[in-house]
Write a structure and sequence with these properties.
Radius of gyration: 22 Å
Helix content: 25-40%
Number of helices: 15
Structural class: alpha/beta
Shape: globular
Distance between the termini: 41 Å
Strand content: 15-25%
Strand order of the largest sheet: 14-13-12-11-7-10-9-8-17-18
Number of strands: 18
Oligomer: single chain
Largest sheet: 10 strands, mixed
Amino acid sequence: MGIIGCGARGETLIRAAPEDVNLEWRGVCEVYDARLEKGLALTGKDSRAYKHYHDLLDRDDIDAVIIATPDHWHAQMAIDAARKGKHIYLEKCMTRTIEEAIALRDAVRQSSVVFQLGHQGRQRDLNQKAKGLIDNGTIGKITLIETTTNRNDSPVEWSFGWEGKANKESVDWEQFEGSISPKRELARPGSQTGFSRERFYGWRRFWDYGTGMSGDLFSNEYDAVNSILDLGIPESAMASGGIYYHHDGREVPDVFQAAFEYPDRQLTLLYSGTLASGIPRGTLFMGRDATMELGRALTVWADRYSSKYKSRIESAIIDPSTPFVRYETDRDDVDAISSPTSKYYADRGLTNTYRNGQRVDSTQLHLAEWLHCIRSGSTPSCNIDRGFEEAVTAHMATLSYREDRKVHWDADKEILS
């Protein structure tokens, strides 16, 4: 195994590597000296350091790679890994553009590698229970889904990270930026192209590197809904929002909302998110017979006008004001968390879930699934096709916001109009 990118998420992935599979770490690639040293310390004596990811991919004794870099490197690194025959675990958002998503999908399909996108929420027990309830008709015909993100982070969490010590001597800035600097200078003559701590730590705030709230946050919510309903790519998307609170030089919005239309499924998916309020809001699946909320718990209320539950409502067996289905999870770990980001991830099942009554690490389960699929030749749950659906859907909303228009997806030609 090798890992490319050993920031906070990369470190989490190394620590989450399952112990019940036989794997050996052989390489760490990282452009920041302090993080490279940290990665080497975590991966052990047989692991070597690399500043250039091609050198790591050239190792014949590395079978699989984890890619946990900023978004602007995802596609090229994963394409190069696929061409080298390396199995790939890639963090979301899968790519930065639709064109990159098509290129990566084609490269993976043309290879024999096992690909897993890092949406560990697919391992969440409540998501799987939700799918079962929808499949057995408990909710009835669903026409509207509303999913959300509420976080109230301090600007430091999206700017200078937790340790903030990187500088031009300790970061290979040319490697970090790749082809971005010349493009930025061409687009905005005189713009800064040397080392920038603001851009290094706060890359999510700039379109050159990141995918905004759509690719960074909505993608989690979309993949959870997609894993439950198999929605695929919408026919159209329309988004709006703005920078309404964090006036810190960012380019991406801190309030964002989008509507995705699925006329063939006769439903609409709505998303709304803010980075200036931490009040929890679950995902609502609104059906003809019941509404299901998927958040800290899974809760189902019968609709008072449901024909399916009419007789039981009239006989007071079911009270529409009281949930008739509810699944709880252990909240002790969340109640003790002070970080808004940590609470958000815990509420979404992105940190822990349950198996046979035991709390387990969602990321560890997702990595283990990928590794077992490599050995068995089977297909993981968040494979390249699911990743392609995630990337295109997220980028449709981003393009709608940036171009201030409704966008349509032509599934046959795989282009937007």
